[in-house]
Amino acid sequence: MTAVHNARPLVQARNVHKSFDQLEVLKGIDLNVMPGEVVAILGPSGSGKSTLLRCINHLEAIHKGYIEVDGEQIGYRVRNNRLEKLSSSGIARQRRKIGMVFQQFNLYPHMTVLQNIIEAPVGVHKENRKDAIENARRLLDRVGLSEKTDSFPRQLSGGQQQRVAIARALAIKPKLMLFDEPTSALDPELVGEVLATMRDLASEGLTMIVVTHEISFAREAADRVVFMDGGHLIEMGKPEDVIGNPQHPRTQAFLSRFL
Amino acid sequence: MNETAVVKAQPSGGADFRDVATAHTPFRTGRLVLWVILALVVANFAWIVAHNENFGWPVVARYFFDPTVISGLYVSLGLTVIAMILGIVLGLAVAIARMSSDRLAKSFASLFIWFFRGTPLLVQLIFWYNMSTLFPQLSITIPFGPTLASWDTNSVITPMAAAIVGLALNEAAYMAEIIRGGLLSVDRGQTETAEAFGMTKARALWRIIIPQAMRSIVPPTGNQLISMIKATSLVSVIAMADLLYSVQSIYNRTFEIIPMLLVAVIWYLLITSILNVGQSYVEAYYGRSDRRNGEAAKPAAATDEASH
Ligand SMILES: Nc1ncnc2c1ncn2[C@@H]1O[C@H](COP(=O)(O)OP(=O)(O)O)[C@@H](O)[C@H]1O
Ligand SMILES: [Mg+2]
């Protein structure tokens, strides 16, 4: 929960612009995330929250500005004093320290829970298979699913699938975790189990950027809340300020819907 | 609690009848009659065929394991296996090229598919066989530059090579479209997830996308394989001694045309039946993650068929 200050930010976004054809979705985003910090991004649908997350691990390329994660500019490198685009394998390498959890879980349906979790550690990070399995079992235990090791995703409830997806992302020992509305596809009674898992991670000092509509989660688990609308970061600050006492009328209007 | 209360409230214990556990399937007389009639017709037809001397069953039996026939069978099977494997590998490459964002790869793949699907296989085979009349010499050269190596076409394109190349290229064009359809059927989110986890494109394709695409690729590929077995009979026109060619060579001597063709027909049916069983096993394997109870792949349909 406690952010380390005076350190170098883990994530730095400067004047980030992103368009889809004519539609400008991100209109100059500036955001720093410190190591160990949990940042919740709130905002109405279509405001560009998912796009911002996807730019951070270069699933989408930005058009202006720059994004840096752990001291490396995402998607580019400097060579002979000039900025050049990274090859797809270079980008793949950069993504290896960033874990991502999707709204639709996106587990690999043809693999068991265990195979889902060890796929990237063994196949991408070249971890020893035995160690990876051991670590996967530990993670499954941590998300409360140790008895589901050999199940296929289709045999699990939505909440269980999302917890497996979290374990899968943790298995690569990420420096940064991105969550894109991890509870939005869940039945209301399953939201709690996923949020509880995420609260645990937050309290253990993992750096997290969480796009969510769960206001109470943002209030309790986040170090900082960012309100986004129309491609701009409109308001940013401590949860008790942004949620408890919003200054901008759009933030006020948005939050009033949750009261 | 509630249920018992409702049951008790039912007048004259009517709820017992409605418990589906007590239900039985009514006897369907019409269906039985239909089955009996059908069985009689089939049995009668089989009896007529078996006792018709024009079919020459003793001849069929005598030549069924004839060395010429068996070696023809090997040629047909060998051609099928080799052409199919080459067709699938090349088809995969063409499918990937067709789906890539590279304009050159894309148009080359489209051109390939357009040509080989658009012309009759028989004509393609004859072209390959007669390559030497079009290009007497095959050479490796730098375009518009010097020649590096050169061969006599007839020594490179033997009937066997012509048959393999012809069948494989044709197959690749069809397989490319089947594989492309399969790859497109996989949820976009899967590619994205694989990428987000730092997989290279090749690894994502091999580990994540292709295994999921297999479910829609396998059934039409089984179809293609069966077509391929029969398509190999076309190579008899370029003097390849396949199954059809070998029975022809026998009836050209003995004039027992129908019995010899029956030998070939029965062999073709036997092979395709075995392939059908194999296909249901493969389908069950790639459908295993769908089973709700999570049992290992135990293809019920396949065991059914195998016991016949
Ligand atoms: N791949 C895309 N192509 C075109 N438009 C897109 C694409 N992805 C998102 N958009 C558009 O960008 C805007 C922001 O989308 P998104 O980032 O998903 O918003 P949010 O996650 O805040 O709901 C929306 O108007 C959406 O339609
Ligand atoms: Mg979104």
UniProtKB/TrEMBL annotation, chain A:
Residues 11-255 form the ABC transporter domain. It is a peripheral membrane protein. CDD domains: ABC_HisP_GlnQ. Belongs to the ABC transporter superfamily. It comes from Phyllobacterium salinisoli. Keywords: Amino-acid transport, ATP-binding, Cell membrane, Membrane, Nucleotide-binding, Transport. The keyword Repeat does not apply. It is found in: Cell membrane. Its main location: membrane. One of its GO terms (molecular function) is ATP binding. It comes from the Bacteria. GO terms for cellular component: plasma membrane. This is Amino acid ABC transporter ATP-binding protein.
Automatic annotation (TrEMBL), chain B:
The chain crosses the membrane at residues 32-50, 70-96, 108-129, 225-245, 257-278. Residues 73-276 form the ABC transmembrane type-1 domain. Coiled coil: none annotated. It is a multi-pass membrane protein. GO terms for biological process: amino acid transport. It is found in: Cell inner membrane; Cell membrane. One of its GO terms (cellular component) is ATP-binding cassette (ABC) transporter complex. Keywords: Amino-acid transport, Cell membrane, Membrane, Transmembrane, Transmembrane helix, Transport. InterPro entries: AA_ABC_transptr_permease_3TM (IPR010065), ArtM/GltK/GlnP/TcyL/YhdX-like (IPR043429), MetI-like (IPR000515), MetI-like_sf (IPR035906). SUPFAM superfamilies: MetI-like (SSF161098). GO terms for molecular function: transmembrane transporter activity. Belongs to the binding-protein-dependent transport system permease family. HisMQ subfamily. The complex is composed of two ATP-binding proteins (GltL), two transmembrane proteins (GltJ and GltK) and a solute-binding protein (GltI). Part of the ABC transporter complex GltIJKL involved in glutamate and aspartate uptake. Probably responsible for the translocation of the substrate across the membrane. This is Glutamate/aspartate import permease protein GltK. It comes from Phyllobacterium salinisoli.
